[in-house]
Amino acid sequence: MYRTTIEDAVFPNCPIRNILARLCDKWSLLVIYTLDKAGKEAVRFKELQREIPDISQKMLTVTLRTLEDDGYVTRTVYPEVPPRVEYALTARAYTLLPHVNALIAWALENRDAIMEDRRKACKK
Amino acid sequence: MYRTTIEDAVFPNCPIRNILARLCDKWSLLVIYTLDKAGKEAVRFKELQREIPDISQKMLTVTLRTLEDDGYVTRTVYPEVPPRVEYALTARAYTLLPHVNALIAWALENRDAIMEDRRKACKK
DNA sequence: CGGAATCCCTGACGATACTG
DNA sequence: CAGTATCGTCAGGGATTCCG
Known about the structure:
With 124 residues, chain A is mainly alpha-helical.
């Protein structure tokens, strides 16, 4: 199973590439947002899948592992049968969340106008 | 020449997927940031390439066109020889910029800690 | 100078099947 | 339940060439 690359080759210190580009893959922001929205301390794997119905099970696993690697998420395995695994946001993730939520709010406000522009551009 | 997809199939109204995921490709944020950083009204194509040396000419073109489609950037062609084309951020882009800059600042603050976590995770 | 067109390839991602 | 393993696809992206 793969994970995304560790560092950008040409600009190893570029915060946009090394930190933001990683958060900006297809699913990461959505997973963080969903974990927060749940309003609980911890969320089970299956529950996340229900909240994001069109993510594949593989990509949910990979995304969570990558988020764990970068310290946004903790993964807790309870030695039960059947197994129970819970994911929770870290303190770091909570300092990021206001910015993410601001972005989402901005996107919501501008969605209609942007989609309209996009449609126009598409017809040309 | 391709451009990224227009709408997300399953959640056509999801602001994260339709607006943010588009901004979060490999180059868009960096181009917006670079246009802003230049501190001018308009920036020429070649100049952008110099500022982002490892972007290919094709991807710079595609990224700029997509940003134009979504109304973040204007493209002005001057009928000269040799041709001159200038790109500028729109008002919409300027309302987005504070959020982007906040994210970049956050990434800078947390870069060392995140990279450290990432390295540890990598060794396991 | 600022592209467009073409070719090509990697890796991100999905689907499916299997497992402790 | 929460994964891992395997395989296949294809779109994102690079390199190169050509053009007004």
